[in-house]
Task: structure prediction
Amino acid sequence: MRKLDILTGSDSGCSEPRKKAATRIFETARDLFYRRGIRAVGVDEIVCQAGVTKPSLYRSFDSKDDLVAKCLESFAAEGMAEIDARIEAAGPEPLPRLKALIAHYAEEMANPGFRGCPMSNAAVEFPEEGHPGRLVVESCKTAVRERVVGLTRALSVDDPEALADGLILLIEGAFSAHHVFGSQGPASAFSRAAERLISSHLKV
Amino acid sequence: MRKLDILTGSDSGCSEPRKKAATRIFETARDLFYRRGIRAVGVDEIVCQAGVTKPSLYRSFDSKDDLVAKCLESFAAEGMAEIDARIEAAGPEPLPRLKALIAHYAEEMANPGFRGCPMSNAAVEFPEEGHPGRLVVESCKTAVRERVVGLTRALSVDDPEALADGLILLIEGAFSAHHVFGSQGPASAFSRAAERLISSHLKV
DNA sequence: GTTGTGATACGTACCGTTCAGTTACATTTC
DNA sequence: GAAATGTAACTGAACGGTACGTATCACAAC
Result:
C-alpha cells in the first residue's frame, strides 16, 4: 500500500535533483501508453526512455499489468477531477453545467496531443474480462455516465436517461472518430450535435 | 496478385473436403483478430487454431501485417456491401434510406458476437501513420462518411454535412460504448438519438 | 573526524519464453 | 508429376521478469 506514495515524487525543495525512478517510470509509461498504445509499448522501452532500468520498474510495480492499471487509474482520476471542476465552475444552474461538460470535451479533443480517450482505447486493447486495466476503465466510464445522467435529471427534459446516453454516444463517437479523421473530421460536429440533442429534449 | 484468389476457397462441389490452408488461416485470423484484438493474437495461435502450419501462412501471406490488412479489407468490403444492400432495399426515398442505415447498425450491434467495429478497433491498435492496416481503415471510414453525407444531402435538411457527421458520431459512439457497457448501456439509446438528430435537422 | 554498519535505491547481466519469420525436406492430393 | 501442404527444426529479436552486485546516505561508535 505504500508503493503509491513514491509516485508523487515529493522531494520538498532542492533544485530538481532528478526525480525518483518510480516517478520517471510512471510518467513515461503514461505518456507512451497513451501515445502509442499499451500493447505496443514494452517494459524495455519504458525504462529506456525513462532513463532507468528494469529492476527499478519491478521494485515499484508488481507487473506490467499493474503499471498499466495504475496509469489508467491516474488518467481516470485526472479526467474525473477535470470534469467535476468544470461543472462546478459553471454555477448552480443545470443547463450551463451540462453545457460546460460538453465544452470541456470539445476543448480536450482540440488539444494537439489528443489521441482519443485512454479508457476507451484500453477497452479495445483488453477485451478479456477481468483484466486489471479493464476494471479501472469500467468504473471510470460508469462514474462518467452517472455524472452525465445526474446533470440531465436536474434538467426539465423528457427522458433524461436517454439524453444522457445520447450525449455519451456523441462524446465516445468524437473520441473514436478522432482516431481516423483527426479534429477536422466528424468530431468537429460534436458540440453542435450535442446542442441539438439537448434542445430536442428540452422543448417539450 | 493471385494470392487473393485462393482465399475464396472455391471447391465447387464435393462434401466439405476440408478447405484450403489459406482459407482456413484467413477465416481463423479474421475471427481471432476481431474477438481478441490484433496485437493480442500471434501467428502461432492462428495456425494452431486453423489446423495448419506456419509455412502455409507465409506461403499465402507476406507477413502478419499483410494478413491483418487483408482481413481488414475483407471486413471493410463486407460492411460496405451490407450497408449498400440495406440502403438499396429501402427504396428510392431518401429518408427511409437513411433510416435503413441506422437500423442496420442498430441490428449489427445487437448481435451476440458484436465487439465493436473492426475498423475502429484497428485504428486504436495501430496509431502509427502509414501502417498497412491503417490505410484500409481510413479509406473504409471515408467511404462510409461519403455514403452518409450522400444520404443526408438527398434530404431537405439544413446543414446535411453536420447531420451526417452527427450520425457518424452516434454510430462510432455506440460502437465504442459497447466495449465497456455492452448492448444494454448507452448503445441502447443509439436509434432514438439518431432519430432525434435527424428530425431536429428536418423540421426547419 | 574518520570509520563501521544497515537500509535504501539503483544498475549489470541474465533468465526462460514468445514473437514473427525461415529453412530444407518429406508427404499428400489431384 | 506437379501443386499444395505438413514436419521439424531453426533464427534473431523482443517480451516480461529476476538474481545479484553496487552506490549512496543516515547514523552511530570510536
Notes: Chain B touches chain A through 51 residues (CB under 8 Å). Chain B is about 70% helix and 0% strand. The mean pLDDT of chain B is 90. The first helix of chain B runs from residue 21 to 36.
